[in-house]
Design goal:
- By secondary structure, the chain is an alpha/beta fold.
- The chain has three domains: about 300 residues, P-loop containing nucleotide triphosphate hydrolases (Rossmann fold); about 110 residues, Domain 2, N(10)-formyltetrahydrofolate synthetase, CATH 3.30.1510.10; about 80 residues, Formyltetrahydrofolate synthetase, domain 3 (Roll).
- Helix content is about 35%, strand content about 20%.
- The protein has 20 helices and 25 strands.
- The strands form six sheets. Strands 1, 2, 3, 4, 5, 6, 14, 15, 16, 17, 18 and 19 form a twelve-stranded mixed beta sheet that branches. A four-stranded mixed beta sheet has the order 20-22-23-21.
- Strand 22 and strand 23 form a beta hairpin.
- The two termini are about 15 Å apart.
Length: about 550
Amino acid sequence: MNTDIEIAQKTKLFPIHKIAEELHLSTEDWEPYGHTKAKLSGALLEKLSNKRDGKIILVTSINPTPAGEGKSTVTVGLGQALRKMGKKAVIALREPSLGPVMGLKGGAAGGGYSQVLPMEDINLHFTGDIHAITTTNNALSAFIDNHIHQGNALRIDPRKIVWKRALDMNDRALRQVIIGLGGAKQGMPREDGFHITVASEIMAILCLAMDLKDLKRRLASIVIGYTYNDEPVTVKDLQVEGALTLLLKEAIRPNLVQTTENTPAIVHGGPFANIAHGCNSIIATKTAAKLADYTITEAGFGADLGAEKYFHIKSQAGNINTAAVVIVATVRALKMHGGMLKDDLKTENIAALEAGMENLQKHVETIQAFHVPFVVAINQFPTDTEQETAFIEQWCDDRGYDVALTTVWADGGKGGIALAEKVIKKAEAVSTSYRPLYEMHESLEQKMRKIAQTVYGADDIEITKQAREQLKLYEQQGWGNLPVCMAKTQYSLSDSPTLLGRPTGFTITIRELRPSIGAGFIVALTGDVLTMPGLPKNPAALQMDVGEDGKAKGLF
């Protein structure tokens, strides 16, 4: 059996101009970035503004496990299947972060015969967008510390700076640091720390901005800290929004690539869903919708994280109308949610599968709460038995849920035809009746409670003293009408990663809040979730190398 990278390296890619031509793009609409990648024009979305939007399909999943779910693989496979059926389809995905690529989770470019390519580029440096975000983030940090060093005209309290530095790598040693040591010439010593780049507010801003003007406006609104009188200090106060926008002028342009079957794909932006809002850029999704009859996009991790934030943050910011949702589940992951150990998953176990179905049921209920039609996709693995897949299909049939078995990893688009047929039927049947779970005028506490109770199934939320004080401050500043971005473990519906399945009788602890005013939301940190992950004992990087021919080795 070939690995993902072996399949990718054997695939015949079209020159990128052929992909652009398929989308009827003129030479002014795109700029080549090598032979197989391109940057789309910053003016393209405005140029297409009078075109009718195609149907947008969101792909989400159950809570992930080490057994794997293959959400990105299904996203790519579904797009390929639609194209095989003669539909004009474009896939819109996030860019992978180097942290999980080099660490444990892996990339985000799909797998098998349903990948976006060139996968080595996409999983490593790609077109440099994430590096540009890292640079912009850290340039702002430099401007802040220089302002303080040069006299601190804004009276920024060094103890109340909330802006952190960033690095696109899992590096636990940088979570909390002291900077400015070495005497007066080295700046003022203070506590600082690092986020992984995909958790930076600048990543969120890039993915939510509609154009350069909106990007600049959002960057200017970033709150970097507070004065000695507890007044917020913004990037606009520092007068550096122009410089930050300049650093991002290329990164805001979406990237055009293709799949293993040469289906067009737009890959742009990459916030995590457990610690950020988990969706690719609004510009990418809306551009794809103007260019295609069907746009297949995804939101990170399970519906409790990515889909919830997609609907409350991305959809409302971008006025995105979603026609249908695909909920991805696997036999392997459901058996883990039912109590099986990873090493035992090759063994058929209907009892564990049945117990794990409660996790799928909760995610179905979440999508139903948003009033959007859905289809369950069973992403088949070679170790799945007929009895196990038949059990899931019967379970769905008994409840009136549309379900389709997919084999897109092994068979590419052909393996997603059954899913595509059901998605088309759902998407074309009626216009969506989407409704958010909360209204913006509700308090931040009410919003957090509704998410915790409706989406996670919690009894209630518990707000720490620190978070309670922050709530009061944020409401006083007029930030209470913003949506909430919940930072929570992806592995469980609760805030404890060990509680699999569908836990009950639990409380979500809100330990800290952080303002992301430029992005347009308030981040609520729950449980022990961290915005700078660490590497595992045996990171994936140990298997990676490059041959004398320049080709990557060991990259999945």
